[in-house]
Write a structure and sequence with these properties.
Elements: H1 7-17, H2 21-26, E1 34-38, H3 45-51, E2 57-58, E3 65-68, H4 78-81, E4 85-87, H5 94-99, E5 106-109, H6 116-125, E6 130-134, H7 138-150, E7 156-159, H8 167-170, E8 174-180, H9 194-197, H10 204-221, E9 222-232, H11 241-250, E10 254-256, E11 265-268, E12 293-300, E13 310-317, H12 326-334, H13 347-355, H14 357-366, H15 393-410, E14 418-422, E15 425-429, E16 441-443, E17 446-452, E18 455-458, H16 460-465, E19 473-477, H17 482-488, E20 493-494, E21 501-502, E22 510-516, E23 519-527, E24 530-533
Parallel strand pairs: 5-6, 5-8, 6-7, 8-9, 19-22
Antiparallel strand pairs: 1-3, 1-4, 2-3, 7-16, 9-13, 10-13, 11-12, 12-13, 14-15, 15-17, 17-18, 19-21, 20-24, 22-23, 23-24
Length: 542
Amino acid sequence: MTIELPEAFIRKMKSLLKDEFQDFYSSYNDPRHYGVRINTLKVAAQQFATISPFALERVPWCPTGFYYPEGERPGKHPYYHAGLYYIQEPSAMLPVELLEIRPGDRVLDLCAAPGGKTTQIAAKLQGTGLIVANDNQAERVKALVKNVEMAGIRNAIVLNDLPERMITSFADYFDKILIDAPCSGEGMFRKEPEMAAQWEKHSVERCSAMQKDILESAALMLTEGGRIVYSTCTFSPEENEAMIVSFLKRHPEFRLVPVQAEGCSIGRADWSGLTSWKNDDAAEGSGIPGPAPLPGTVRLWPHLVRGEGHFAAVLEKAHAAHAASTEERDVQASVRIRSADEHTLSASRAGQIKVNAAAGRLARKAAEPGKRGHKEVEAGRSRRDKNGKGKPIETLMAANAAWEAFIKEHLTVHPPGELVVYGDHLYLTPAYPPALDGLKVSRPGWYVGTIRHNRFIPSHALAMGLKAEEAVRRVNLSSQSMEAVNYLRGDTLPVAEVDLLRAGQCPAKGWCLVCIDGYAAGWGKWQDGILKNEYPPGWRMT
């Protein structure tokens, strides 16, 4: 065996799996499984299957997920740089599928970096609703931002804050919350052998304490009738079944939602410390006698499926007596445009938070002073600089005018969203966002560009979020050509005027959307037969 498993881990798994242990242990000798998930914001899964440069085999629990053969290098193909897919471990594709996202939902990815599940959520929303992607580690947020931009996501806000600090802005706000919780990582030992060596440092006890606090915060940010999917990549019952049962005992307003997912095993009630479980009687934990399954929780075992170890639980928050019917809620979801103050925390709800012991503790943490991040982001109003002086409204108007001029000259559509200005940077924030004051904001919306000398310079994120036909001027490169590779490496390209695709009678000179097989990959500036490369240095193919 090439992976040296900790002796304490081996003893623990023998105790849990008993007769299954040998099959489990032998799976560490099996080859790893590799997966990509198609980004349906860019291309339909069926369509990608017809152009894929490598063989694909569907992942059973994810309709847009596919296995690819070991030895292929999808990260080196131009399609990767065009954002057509995300390279993702197959088991990690399951939790978002269990969220059952609907168009118009407000979704929180609470422990989001590096962003694989955020991009999966965005693909399901198809540009509707709102995604808030948060991670409390600044270095990891850099990767999250890049993946959000590469996927062409227009309706995401990216935060870098602690979950408990988010409650004031987002109380009772989200329809769906994903918690891909920090954990002891036992399920990733085959994928990342170094995690086995670090296992004892990532103690189950320390991880369990973090998971409990994260769940408490999430419960306060979920609206009535909303759904939380809690997931880990560990086998530890303390972080899985026991964590969920403990949460349900503290929160009788929640219930487990039984789910079926192809290839998944049901979690174990007896591993939660109980001998049985009944979903509608969480306080007592009574029900089916003897060791029993825990419906609403699922496991992926590496000796039973083609993927690494994973756990997920599906939790639903009960409606109040006056809540809308299922039929009414379906109608509401299809026309989810709410006023900016509709979900403002009411005085009664604020009082409820204060008197609730757990929420009170979290609210006190949220009140602690900290770095305010992009507090200065403003939407059409003046802001205060470090000297306390307001940013002139004329400057904001000039930024808006430069943006509108760019749209008129270079785009065939007017991108939706409210223009937000932070310094020289411009964003389009999703309609009716919550107040973000006091939070560490990495991206308040779709980053569209900067203002330099009163002129608008489009961002790479803007290009990645556009469809080919939304640019008045574009050039299309073949994924099999050296021109595509040279562009992604940052080279200037010779492009004849006849090869420019233009809308109407627009002039040839100007910003040009560079596409690969028809999919947006970045910007160039065309003049006199030369395409000046505007591909960001940090993104270039090496």
